[in-house]
Design brief:
Elements (H helix, E strand, L loop, with lengths): L10 H17 L2 H8 L15 H9 L18 H14 L5 H12 L5 H8 L4 E4 L14 E4 L2 E10 L6 E8 L2 E8 L5 E6 L8 E10 L1 E4 L2 H37 L1 E2 L2 E2 L4 H30 L4 H26 L11 H13 L4 H13 L5
Parallel strand pairs: 1-4
Antiparallel strand pairs: 2-3, 3-7, 4-5, 5-8, 6-7, 9-10
Helix pairs in contact: 1-4, 4-7, 5-6, 5-7, 7-8, 7-9, 7-10, 8-9, 9-10, 9-11
Length: 375
């Protein structure tokens, strides 16, 4: 089926995106974000998990966690193009929450053969995150750090996003039958979360050890489920990056127009003006590729991986470029803890590498287009 016009981003999607922007504008300013997560500049501080749980409950009440849950499991079943619009606003606000992790887990569960009960739990407000990466940071879905036997998990999953905000973990584990997907409560016996120290102050990360932990298998062919769902994961992360980059661009443009030098605003000078125009162009490219990937996932599943690799590769480079220009154009103040741009710089650096950087995605794209290179 050919893609519809405007990437299938219809009236409902536009209303959802606009309501999300208003929600964050009314309830979560950048000043509030900074006061919440950046009170302590000590680099030796312990890893913290700081977020507004009351505001999160309002988001759950709005139905945001159930957007991607299929209707038959009690959710809204909205297209990925609409969900991407919401996540773009999440990135613009840099709101610390388990929303992105829960949406990612939802798409993987929807691709499983026995994920109905878990999807129903998410539709009712449960939070979840993916635990599918080993300690080496390999994004190869078959290279897991966890093994399964007799319904019990053992081993360590690494780079688990927002683990301390999540009620459940969706774990990929290897067994004699291949790679399976398992649903386990984050506080279950035998499950231990070890917080990681990361540069991103708006997220938390952990490595999770499983010591003979009981888990429910929700996907017998975990590799196939992940292959179907990961394009949605990459697309949503690209949408988050685009939203954060738009905040960086808008904030920087406001600053260079207000800051005076040599009887002119900084924005008057080409050395400032032209790089910011290039940031705008990079954002437009990444956003177009992101919504193209979302639309492909919704309407052309055979093209979903190709389009999602393109979107995440472009977004990863936009994250780095927008971050560099935002700090540099703020001048000396851009390097200070009190300036808000460092919060987005750090979030973007984390997103840039999460689930594969630009080089990794382009290598995978090359495999799709021209085939793997012979050894």
């Amino acid at each position: 089926m050919a893609q519809p016009k405007n990437y299938g981003f219809g009236e409902e999607a536009a209303m959802l995106k606009e309501s999300a922007r208003k929600f964050f504008a009314d309830n979560f300013s950048t000043e509030k974000l900074h006061s919440m997560v950046a009170q302590d500049p000590n680099p030796e501080r312990m890893s913290e998990c700081l977020w507004d749980q009351a505001l999160w409950q309002e988001m759950v009440a709005l139905g945001w966690t159930s957007l991607a849950v299929p209707e038959e499991a009690g959710g809204l079943g909205m297209p990925l193009a609409a969900v991407a619009g919401l996540v773009e606003e999440l990135g613009r606000a840099a709101f610390p929450s388990p929303l992105l992790g829960t949406l990612n887990a939802t798409y993987v569960l929807a691709a499983c053969d026995a994920g109905e009960a878990a999807l129903a739990a998410i539709a009712e407000g449960a939070t979840a995150t993916l635990a599918i990466t080993n300690a080496a940071g390999s994004w190869d879905i078959r290279d897991t750090g966890v093994s399964a036997a007799g319904g019990k998990l053992s081993g360590t999953a690494s780079f688990v996003q927002d683990a301390r905000k999540s009620d459940y973990l969706l774990v990929s584990a290897a067994s004699g039958d291949g790679l399976g997907l398992y649903w386990v409560a984050a506080d279950a016996p035998g499950v231990t979360l070890h917080p990681d120290a990361i540069v991103d102050l708006t997220r938390d990360q952990a490595h999770v050890t499983f010591d003979n932990a009981a888990a429910e298998q929700v996907g017998a062919d975990g590799a196939a489920a992940l292959e179907r769902a990961l394009p949605a994961v990459w697309t949503l992360l690209a949408a988050d990056i685009c939203g954060a980059a738009e905040w960086q661009l808008q904030t920087t443009v406001e600053y260079v127009n207000a800051r005076q030098q040599f009887d002119h605003s900084l924005g008057f000078f080409q050395a400032v003006k032209h790089p910011l125009v290039n940031v705008m162009c990079a954002i437009d490219e990444s956003k177009s590729l992101t919504y193209n990937a979302a639309c492909a996932y919704d309407t052309e599943p055979e093209e979903a991986a190709r389009c999602a690799h393109m979107a995440k590769a472009s977004a990863a480079e936009t994250a780095a470029f927008a971050s560099g220009r935002s700090v540099q154009c703020h001048g000396g103040i851009g390097f200070t803890w009190e300036c808000f741009v460092h919060l987005y710089f750090k979030r973007q650096k984390h997103s840039q590498l999460l689930f594969g950087d630009a080089a990794w995605h382009r290598a995978k794209l090359a495999d799709i287009l021209i085939g793997p290179v012979a050894a």
